[in-house]
């Protein structure tokens, strides 16, 4: 390849890299914080803003699950776990995704602790692989130690 063509090719790659970097830059993400009021196992209210926890799926409050031979209100238990973790605490959230319906999906923190991760690691939420693989290892940990929804998992 002649020098001019290599230079144009290298410049093109550089510009693509810059464009991708700027598009995914944390500076573009919206951050907010406030005191949390837990609405369900994966939804909190901060001020007047409703936020769903990004990358996780928890049972809805009226969901019934079978764990071993027992049926239980796993949605209420997941809701209770998030209340224990976050309700009334000052929470900082980074918006990761704005859905077409206007729903904000965020990663939320209490200090340095990732609330989303803690819910998955407790076993009361599952990793939502369609959004991110970030919490898959935490779900595997909950399964391996039979926590929460995985309490009766046979390994």
Word description of this protein:
The chain contains 4 helices and 10 strands, in the order αββββββαβββαβα. With 155 residues, it is α+β, with helices and mostly antiparallel strands. The chain has one domain (28-150): OB fold (Dihydrolipoamide Acetyltransferase, E2P) (Beta Barrel). The strands form 3 sheets. A 5-stranded mixed barrel has the order 1-2-3-8-7. Strands 4-10 form a two-stranded antiparallel sheet. Strands 5-6 form a two-stranded antiparallel sheet. β1 (31-40) and β2 form a beta hairpin. The protein starts with a helix and ends in an 11-residue tail after the last helix. The relative contact order is 0.16.
Topology (SSEs and partners):
Elements: H1 3-23, E1 31-40, E2 43-46, E3 49-53, E4 56-57, E5 65-67, E6 70-72, H2 74-86, E7 90-98, E8 104-110, E9 113-114, H3 115-122, E10 126-127, H4 136-144
Parallel strand pairs: 3-8
Antiparallel strand pairs: 1-2, 1-7, 2-3, 4-10, 5-6, 7-8, 8-9
Give structural attributes:
single chain; two-stranded antiparallel sheet; 4 helices; 5-stranded mixed beta barrel; alpha+beta; OB fold (Dihydrolipoamide Acetyltransferase, E2P); about 160 residues
Short summary of the structure?
It contains four helices and ten strands.
Report the sheet with the most strands, covering strand number, pairing sense and barrel closure. Answer: 5 strands, mixed, barrel
| Outline | globular
Strand proportion? 25-35%
Strand order of the largest sheet: 1-2-3-8-7
Unreliable stretches (pLDDT < 50, length at least 5) are: 18-27
Number of strands: 10
Mean pLDDT: 86
C-alpha termini separation: 57 Å
């Amino acid at each position: 390849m002649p020098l001019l063509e290599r230079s144009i090719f290298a410049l093109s790659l550089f510009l693509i890299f810059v464009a991708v970097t700027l598009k995914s830059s944390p500076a573009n993400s919206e951050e907010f914080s406030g005191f949390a009021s837990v609405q369900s196992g994966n939804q909190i209210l901060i001020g007047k803003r409703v936020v769903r926890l990004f990358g996780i799926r928890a049972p809805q409050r009226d969901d019934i699950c079978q764990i071993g031979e027992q049926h239980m209100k796993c949605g209420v238990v997941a809701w209770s776990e998030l209340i224990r973790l976050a309700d009334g605490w000052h929470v900082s959230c980074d918006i990761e995704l704005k859905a077409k319906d206007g729903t904000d999906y965020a990663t939320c923190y209490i200090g340095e602790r990732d609330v989303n991760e803690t819910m998955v690691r407790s076993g009361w939420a599952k990793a939502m692989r369609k959004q991110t693989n970030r919490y898959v290892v935490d779900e595997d940990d909950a399964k391996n130690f039979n926590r929460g929804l995985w309490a009766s998992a046979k390994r």
